[in-house]
Amino acid sequence: MPEPLAPDALSPVLICGTGLIGTSVGLALARAGIAARLSDTNPAALRVAAGRGAGRQADIDGSDCPPRLVVVATPPADLSDEIVGALRAHPDAVVTDVGSVKAEPLAEVTARLGRRDCARYVGGHPMAGSERSGPMAAAADIFDGRSWAVTPAAEADPAAVAMVELLAVTCGSAVVRMAPVDHDRAVARMSHLPHLMAVLTAARLVDAPDSHLRLGGQGIRDVTRIAAGDPVMWRQIVVANAAPLRELLADLRVQLEILDGSLAGPNLEAADTGALDALLAAGVAGTNLLPGKHNRPARPLVTVTVQIPDEPGSLAALFTTAAAAEVNIEDLRIDHDPGRAFGLVEIDVVEDRADALIAALRDNTWPAHR
Amino acid sequence: MPEPLAPDALSPVLICGTGLIGTSVGLALARAGIAARLSDTNPAALRVAAGRGAGRQADIDGSDCPPRLVVVATPPADLSDEIVGALRAHPDAVVTDVGSVKAEPLAEVTARLGRRDCARYVGGHPMAGSERSGPMAAAADIFDGRSWAVTPAAEADPAAVAMVELLAVTCGSAVVRMAPVDHDRAVARMSHLPHLMAVLTAARLVDAPDSHLRLGGQGIRDVTRIAAGDPVMWRQIVVANAAPLRELLADLRVQLEILDGSLAGPNLEAADTGALDALLAAGVAGTNLLPGKHNRPARPLVTVTVQIPDEPGSLAALFTTAAAAEVNIEDLRIDHDPGRAFGLVEIDVVEDRADALIAALRDNTWPAHR
Fold this sequence. Notes:
The structure is a homodimer.
Chain A: E1 13-16, H1 20-31, E2 37-39, H2 43-51, E3 56-57, E4 69-72, H3 79-89, E5 94-97, H4 103-113, E6 123-126, E7 147-151, H5 158-170, E8 174-177, H6 180-203, H7 210-214, H8 218-224, H9 231-240, H10 242-262, H11 274-289, E9 301-309, H12 314-324, E10 331-336, E11 342-350, H13 354-363, E12 368-369
Parallel strand pairs in A: 1-2, 1-4, 2-3, 4-5, 7-8
Antiparallel strand pairs in A: 6-7, 9-11, 9-12, 10-11
Helix pairs in contact in A: 3-4, 6-10, 10-11
């Protein structure tokens, strides 16, 4: 069992790749008093990252003293090459990465270097990101309070694992240690399949008449929001995690066949909707399994809807009212109406505070209802 | 061209079915000074609706004077029977309904009564609802600012159409007139398929290990939220709109086959990802087609993320700050961290106000970034 490390045990850190995540790691380390070195094949990105305070450019001639930790933060398609390159170039360093997929890069790196040399490589995946990309979108605090998966191979050096977990904690995240294959199955289910489902739903809008689009409400907006993410990055992620995704897609195709069969009866009134019922029930059950806040079991929430003028200050007044009534808002959605200058706000609160909130909003002249 | 009608041209109104929508129609009419009559086979629901002010119970012995307008607001599976019953029982009344599907009930009603008697029937579909149901969940203002589809058959009496559109406007909605078949295709695409996609995604969580669920973030929460809706009502909706839904499901199965094929190459690095690229691009394009607020073209938005303590008053302070900086918040999401007592709030603002918002939040000691 290695002793706990102090944050400066990470230093010197070299960050390879100064996009959104690499630059944010540099900024988070700078916030913790650690000055990183930065490298990127794109000199413009490198200058922006350095200029924003994520670290200083690594010396090209190799005159820097050797890094203790190398963080590979390149696009998904380049990860294996970059990890192998880092392990070779820095034979005493721990190497980690921030890629969305863990098993395939590990297998490639192991095949090319052998297991012994790979003991210094420990994969990582911070659960932070954005629909934006690049160093201008980076910030020191994007990891705060997020999960950071750490995915060591069985042969990984425990001291290397400790160093990567220290990186995650120093950046503000909570470590979730998982085996690489398990991680990939998890993100296939929790992130990559949902992304593809959002994309498949949104893609159906491309040839929709305007009159159809006018009937779109908050439901389809929620379902499709993440489909706006960078398609080049998502292609690389999906390709790299193809195996577990294909298992889920195979399940999905079976589900769709069953669903279609339950809608195909010659007399639908008498059709066997048992399969449809089971699917809808599983959907309700699945939404209830998503974790509540702070890892507590989810408490039953109810939604309060309130109508507010669509102008600066309305939300402030609304929330001041809620706060004065000592009601904690758990979640909130805003839906703009199709023809008028006000918005409809849906506020989720724990069930036993809903009436207090509605009363307070109404006392304050806001039309509100469950 | 009939003359414009005043709201009291609707009266007397009979509402058949006092669930969420029927009771809310009664409350909205009461707000406009129109006292509706209510009927329901469930006497408890009827008493609750009447007690909440949605109208008075219709006389069972038929001593009421004949209604001008009958609003059928029963569950989807009962619509045709109820519409036929209303047309027969009230030979001088206009009859409308509030069901989610329009072509099948119209066809059934026409087959049973003939086209001439059906001229008094004009379907409607207010784009309002909730994951809750029943008269206790009703409110006068749930239709305010929403679209209300009005779907007359070609043979419909123009005066009947005008009366149903007056109902929609009196309840606070904006009329969207559509042919019944077109409406059903629109809601299959904009509402029913998204619902099934959310359900299919959420259903994959039922057998997920806890460690997988811990990696779930805002993305999967958004994609699956509507899957929590009432499965009995959704089964009836899906069955009633089976034909256009099955067309979309057939498209979807083809898309999935292509997607799977593009992930199945013996050498993925060299795989033809053209189909995957096209799908991801269509997803981005589709999200951009969803209407912006107030029917204006969508303006480019950027997301500002801010970290706030998870306690009453935090959101109030945040929005007071935004309002003081004259920044209008277009949308907002709240993500709770997995282990700490603060929340991460994502705020969408038009691009040229993002820096002002960030500066104001930071001046106020809130950590904020794009």
